[in-house]
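Archive entry. Fields below.
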Amino acid sequence: MDFKDQINIIERGVSEIVPDGGLAAKLKKVSEEKRPLIVKLGADPSAPDIHLGHTVVLRKLRDFQRCGHKIFFLIGDFTGMIGDPTGKSKTRKPLSREEVELNAKTYEKQIFKILDPDKTEIVFNSSWNAPMRFEDVLKLTSKYTVAQMLERDDFSKRYHAGDGITITEFLYSLIQGYDSVVLKADVEVGGTDQKFNLLVGRSLQREYEIDPQICLMMPLLEGLDGVNKMSKSLGNYIGIDEPPNEMFGKVMSISDEMIIKYFTLLTDVPSKDIQKMEEDMKGGTNPRDIKVKLAKEIIKTYYPEEMAHQAEEEFNRVFAKKELPDEIPEYHVGEKEVWVIKLLTDSGLSTSNSEARRLIQGGGLYIDNERVQDDKLVIECRNGMIIKAGKRKFLKLKV
RNA sequence: GGGGAGAUUCCCGAGUGGCUAAAGGGGGCAGACUGUAAAUCUGUUGGCGCAGCCUUCGAAGGUUCGAAUCCUUCUCUCCCCA
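PREDICTED_STRUCTURE:
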């Protein structure tokens, strides 16, 4: 593949490349050396459940693989075992060897839904960090200055605001950067929030007389709320392991403004087609229809295409036509007569009686398509009775 | 080593003796509307078979008819000076 094609593929969706135009030079260099690019990605060992936000970067790695390059998927288990104090959040509890290994397995299973295993090598930074002697660490710390550290916006703000910064936090950046030295990375990929760390890697490589890596930053993907970065802790994510129906619904719940960004970062739809959709929407095409396309494209990357269609049908049935879903979980009731509130709580539709009461008072409970408004109601259960709590929770009773 | 600030419900953040299950915002949930689990608007947001009761304001004690609010001790966070 010639450089131009490679660059086109690689630059899609990218937020920034440092240095500007450095990619072409690197490509030229490695092709002269008759070897693939070594592309590094550092992963947090404590969050092994991958969601679409993570896939933005993974898909970029896959782009590199399609151009014939090699990926080092680095699991930062060394840092993980110490416990990462990043930011203001309380120190995370250190991960044990077993946990790290378990998480690594999960990673493997999930990343290969996107990456090509033949061109991927999973490495652990503990394998070279753990044996380091204190003097090695000192040598490393001598390569970077406090002033350089304070260039990082986050550090600088916290420093001037008088918030604490631990030395460990400084060291984390160095450790990550040192990984690039060890791997002799040509390119490091990361989110825009990782820019500083990636640049540290670049500087350190220069200090250790290695040709400095290209830093390639991908935009952060906003989650379902359209505002915050997609993350598990905020609950605004779409997990890569989620069933198609769930994915479909969640994609449909993103705000209209996010559609184009999701297309660019999460699908293989060609850029010119995406542009056309953007124009269509401006021209009055219903964003809903474009979003349906998006949802199907995303599902297609993780499941057979057929399931994407099924998810669409299901969605239309349940939400557009307000009919019943295809499959409704069954709940076995012990007695014939049950107080509604108890039923809701026991079956898990609500977490407490009070919540169940609120649901009823808010008009969100339907039994056999009839709204229930009496929270004292005692139901006479029949086989096949349908309980609908809110928009998307259904239950079929079994006596 | 010395001095100071603070810890409130899922989160942020008001509240300095009763009217406080605790303002406001965020988030969540529900309803209406719709083109969708978009947007917007409205309601709701500790628990309990709930016109009542019980438990919450870092922890433990104490003062008081009555405490998130006052006192004592403790734990933890942060800042300033050295």
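CURATOR_NOTE: The longest strand of chain A covers residues 38-43.
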